[in-house]
Amino acid sequence: MFRACIQKNNRYYVLCTVVYCAILFVSCSKTNDQDYIVGPDRDDWASLYDWSNPDTWLDPYNWPNRKVISFAYSEYRAPLGFYQEDFERGNPYYENTISIRRPICPDYGCWFELCSDERDLAYAWSESCAVSSSYYRDYESERETDKYFEFRRVYEVNPNDVLLSRVHKCSYLDRTMHDKLHPTPVLGIFVPRPITMESSRELVEYMWANGMLRGYGSVISCSSSENPESFSHSILYVDIVYGDFGMCDQIFLLEMIADVEKGTGSITCDSQGLRQMNGVCHK
Predict the structure, then answer these.
(1) What's the pLDDT band for 7 if we cut at 50, 70, 90?
(2) From the CA atom positions of the chain, what is the Rg in Å?
């Protein structure tokens, strides 16, 4: 049996669990008056299923625990077609009131991501961040999408230190009302009109891939539905808390539901825990 209560607002889990575990290929023994579980390593678990086969991904809500564990240890981070960033290019960073030292916040501080539809203003914010950083990264190149301006910056001393300095386009996503240090339910406003199922789903996947939603982990599936007032997108995902000596990895199967209101473009989301299970255990 398993029961989980998860609180995401303060970025931690409160877990209430009643667990018994019977996992394939796992045996239990006892030493020094403490139980430990001896089983396959992470690569063994990952190889139990052929994750390159699209049929393997079907019916995810009914996967047995061993399949969830196998996926958690696999190299796959999202299903085919889900929005993904190319992190080989560098680390995306969205300019904000802290990075540019913008003096608009009360004494308690605030963290609002900035937006602009003007390239020169976006570049000025990127440069301000570079100057305020502990070390300066040189401007190397830039690109523009419908979602953001991006300025690629490289640290001269270490060319592998690459920052993709980004500024949201206000015409796509406005997050200037969402304080990351003191979060409120509304995560941003989706601006393009009309709002459709497809456009709002792309937005949600983009926000997920860049850590803007209340959830983190490897995505198993994304499904969408339409309500009278909004479009709803459910992301089923797994997260791992890796164990140390004498402990087991803890694998969580969770669901995040993001809603995009049709009229206002307001974006909200919530997460809930579905299952918890032991992964690889460490002597």
Answers:
(1) very low
(2) 21
Distance CA 154, CA 179 (A): 28
Measure the CA–CA gap between 144 and 156, rounded to whole angstroms: 24
What pLDDT is attached to residue 138?
Answer: 98
Question: Per mean pLDDT, which range of 44-58, 103-117, 252-266 is the poorest?
Answer: 103-117
Distance CA 203, CA 81 (A): 14
For residue 59, is pLDDT > 70? yes
d(CA 201, CA 218): 17
Q: How many of the other CB atoms lie within 10 Å of CB of 250?
A: 17
Model confidence, pTM: 0.83
In the chain, where are the structural domains located? Answer: 1-76+185-283, 87-184
Model confidence at 126, pLDDT cuts 50, 70, 90, reads very high
Mean pLDDT of 229-239: 97
> SS3 for the chain, per residue?
CCCCCCCCCCCCCCCCCCCCCCCCCCEEEEECCEEEEECCCHHHHHCCCCCCCHHHHCCHHHCCHHHHHHHHHCCCCCCCCCCCCCHHHCEEEECECCCCCCCCCCCCCCCEECECCCHHHHHHHHHHHHHHCCCCCEEEEEEECCCEEEEEEECCCCCCCEEEEEEECCCCEECCCCECCCCCCCCEEECCCCCCHHHHHHHHHHHHHCCCCCCCCEEEEEEEEECCCEEEEEEEEEEEECCCCCCEEEEEEEEEEEEEECCCCEEEEEEEEEEEEEEEECC
pLDDT confidence of residue 35: 37
Q: What is the pLDDT of residue 194?
A: 97
